[in-house]
Specification:
Layout lengths: L18 E6 L5 E4 L1 H7 L3 H4 L14 H12 L4 E8 L5 E12 L5 E9 L3 H21 L3 H18 L3 H6 L2
Antiparallel strand pairs: 1-2, 1-5, 3-4, 4-5
Helix pairs in contact: 3-5, 4-5
Amino acid sequence: MSPRPDPTQQERMLAEDDFIVSKTDPKGIITYGNRIFIAISGYSEEELLGSPHNILRHPDMPRAVFKLLWDTLQARQEINAYVKNLAKDGSFYWVFANITPSLDRRGEVIGYYSVRRKPRPEAVQTVAALYRTMLDAERKAGDGQAGMKASLAILNRTLEEKGMGYDEFVLGL
């Protein structure tokens, strides 16, 4: 795997009818990616398969969002989220993701299945502003747990003010 690229201001856009599909094992290692996933990420299929899904993590994404994602998935629940991803060439692309745990017959998590589509521009504006505020709090409080707690506090306060949970919030954007 090549080193993580430096982010650029170049945005890639999904078409209205594009759906990115990927599967990972329980640790987030990519086991499948459809042709749209491969094309927009800029990585080859060989580079993606066997790599951690977080190779796409854009530095503009607050760590607290991924903590919420993983906590929800570990509880065997699906989650919806807006995510800014980093392509191989440093460009970025926003997605509206639905991530679902895949369970075996005994109810054990055997991986995760994600379908992502083009987000509404108005939703991206709202989420990007919230994520910037969360990321600023993470940076001010430090890289450790203090940063995560500060970021989560902003998210939780925003949701409380709106009187809704995270899924309800993102589905309503």
